[in-house]
Description:
alpha/beta; D-Maltodextrin-Binding Protein, domain 2; 7-stranded mixed beta sheet; NrtA/CpmA_ABC-bd_dom; cell membrane; cell inner membrane; membrane; ATPase-coupled transmembrane transporter activity
Amino acid sequence: MKKIISIFSLVVLAGILAACGSDSGASSGSGSDDSVTIGYFPNVDHAAGMVAEEKGFYEDTLPDGTEVNYQYFPDGSAFMTAIETGEIEGGIVGPGPAMNHFTSGADINIVAAGATGGTVIMKRNGADIESAEDIKGKTFISPRVGCTHDVQFEAMMKDEFGITSDRLDGEMKHVTGKPATYSSMFESGKVDVAAVPEPWAAYIEAEGTGEVMFQNDEVAHNADMPASVFVTSEKLKEKDPGLIQNLVDAHKNATDFVNENPEESKEIAIEKIEEITDQKLSKEVVDSSWERMNFTYEVDEKEIQMFADSSYELQFLEEKPNLNGLVDTTFIEE
């Protein structure tokens, strides 16, 4: 089978590696019955997508003669639009965009997870922060308002320490920015705390501009909540469930490979990220990032609902969401 790789070029690594980035755009889709297009981000928690592409796992499960195309996305909104319009058949995205589009009426399904963990709370060196109480009056940054990492940080601060952001008339000032810039913003003193998706927490550590305040297993919804999920459209699922099964089988095989061959998978991730972004992450950064994630295709529907409830309680959502029908575990159970 033939594999066609379509590379979406970005100017900087910052926008494309942010789990809640704000830029948009992608390469052209498949648009053919004998071709399939898979989407993902060049993020460390999307390693299964990179491995599947490099090792040809989709070619192994799809019918002979199927062309496999790949699109690389800078943010969840662009990815979800591609799913809804049929530009891509499936792929890996953060859970936040999937939930948001589902609650807005999109007919999509989460059919597997990609990874859990990966969010770390960092504090700036010299920010005079020793405890959560010290964050009062300080400035924290997240990729976007109400994105996965923002919700995780604000839920933890509200539930465990009773501290909220200025958006809720609280005592923390919130700003947004691309995670690749957090280290320089720490160095300049522009922000004090960051809700950081990997690999940028490990990058900040390597640069020496900040240190971990709350490890990934201390952050709200970070232990079992998927950091990335595999999504497809409900319309395609109803039209061709066999195709969805093939895609999920390939994703499962790739995830198993990541867990059984971590060192080779890290090298694939480093090389793929460099190929797409023209920037190379160090082995040290990827090693540290890897330790804060768990690669799994098992998806916890209850955890996703609890995360959505936290978004509502923090007033990111106007109505309490009902996610019944979003998750379909049928294909990972086959």
